[in-house]
Specification:
By secondary structure, this protein is an alpha/beta fold. Helices cover 34% and strands 24% of the residues.
Length: 265
């Protein structure tokens, strides 16, 4: 297997295809084949394939929510025998290959191999796919934020984020929603003294004014500005304790407190 910190092979690009209000379908492709991550809507992905004369070679699914899986049936009807790779359990219609923690997804048409990381919290079945210096993490980690706890516990999500946090600092993070501006507003409420966060806010505002994506982000940046990766930092802890009006025993308790705060923000 390739070293997971290696760069993508020459000629491979990652392109965002917009879907719904704020979803991105990430397309890993060369000049012939595309592998799509979380196609909640088939139409924009099929349009991308037609526009660039690409064949859809496989689909990766991070979790079961409809805005990540809704396009599977249509795509499989257009591309018979389409490999659809995602969580085990049989609960996602259209999955042709189930994968678990430590499995390797081989994409021979692109010369890529991605390791599977289980990251429960947003949902219990959530996966991330990591390799070649990139990670496709669905709704687990966002720029300046993290996913809501729809099924998992705060302990599970904090553990999952810590797993992602251990990836190399230069890892490019491809999450599936354009939530960065609103996440930054909350992050600044939690850690107003963070100058790196303020600098990032200014850059993000410019990009959004130009209708440009703020993604991918980078792990080193997220470790510097994302409060959900900074529960060990004094200002984040103090803000969490002030908000909930009680001392917090450990980093997981801080995480749980700021996740609840974000839900109400």
């Amino acid at each position: 297997m390739n070293n997971p910190s290696d760069a993508l092979p020459e000629g491979i690009q990652v392109t965002a295809v917009r879907a719904f209000q704020d979803n991105y379908i990430w397309c890993l492709h060369n000049n012939a084949t595309v592998v799509a991550v979380d196609p909640g809507d088939a139409a924009p992905l099929l349009a991308f394939c037609r526009e660039h004369t690409l064949k859809l070679g496989a689909v990766l699914i991070t979790h079961h929510h409809r805005d990540h899986t809704g396009g599977i049936a249509k795509l499989a009807s257009v591309y018979p025998n389409l490999p659809v790779i995602g969580p085990a359990g049989g609960h996602i219609r259209g999955i042709t290959k189930s994968v678990d923690e430590g499995d390797v997804v081989r994409l021979p048409t692109l010369g890529c191999e991605l390791s599977v990381i289980e990251v429960p919290g947003h949902t219990l079945d959530h996966l991330a796919f990591f390799g070649h210096g990139v990670v496709f993490c669905g709704d687990t980690l966002f720029s300046a934020g993290c996913g809501r706890l729809f099924e998992g516990s705060a302990e599970q999500m904090h553990h999952s984020l810590n797993k992602l946090k251990r990836l190399p600092d230069n890892t490019l993070i491809y999450c599936t929603h354009e939530y960065t501006q609103s996440n930054i507003q909350f992050a600044m409420a939690v850690e107003p003294g963070n100058s790196a966060l303020q600098d990032y806010a200014d850059k993000v505002n410019v990009r959004r004014q130009q209708d440009k994506a703020t993604l991918p982000t980078q792990m080193a940046r997220e470790k510097a500005i994302n409060p959900f990766l900074r529960t060990h930092c004094d200002e984040v802890c103090r803000s969490a304790e002030a908000h909930c009006g009680a001392p917090l025993a450990n980093d997981t308790a801080v995480f749980a407190a700021i996740r609840r705060w974000k839900d109400e923000f």
